[in-house]
Design brief:
single chain; alpha/beta; 4 strands; 42% helix
Length: 134
């Protein structure tokens, strides 16, 4: 999976991939995304994001964010997960500083947008994880 996905993502091209669980899909999009964000683009502005990963459930959002957080551990990038079922206020506070990579569920993303807690002016990359479930 990764050998086919990483080159187009590094080149900034669109990619659609389908594969079974355990084939490395998250690493296939996250590793080249993190490399691109590290090497190019301005520092993230307040209430802004540079990359958005949409996931259909909070469990998947948590899982994807944890993988991305681990991959980015020694990089000068910030990551965060936002989803419903928990208070929105801490999420709004975290976004005030800006986040390089936000993993979110669609409902919570809309809530944050309606509250003017998030802006998309710096958004460079959109990833729909398990788009068939949204």
């Amino acid at each position: 999976m990764q050998t086919q996905a990483i080159p187009p993502v590094l080149a900034g091209r669109d990619l659609m991939a389908a594969a079974q669980t355990g084939t490395g899909k998250t690493a296939g999009f996250a590793l080249p995304l993190l490399q691109r964000l590290t090497m190019e683009g301005p520092k993230v502005a307040p209430n802004s994001i540079r990359a958005l990963v949409l996931a259909p459930t909070r469990e998947l959002a948590d899982q994807v964010h944890e993988s991305i957080r681990q991959y980015a551990e020694h990089l000068p990038l910030s990551t965060y997960a936002a989803y419903g079922g928990v208070s929105i206020n801490p999420q709004m506070m975290k976004l005030r500083k800006g986040v390089d990579v936000l993993v979110a569920t669609p409902g919570r993303l809309l809530d944050l947008y309606r509250q003017k807690a998030i802006r998309f002016s710096q958004l460079q990359t959109l990833i729909l994880d398990e788009a068939d479930r949204m």
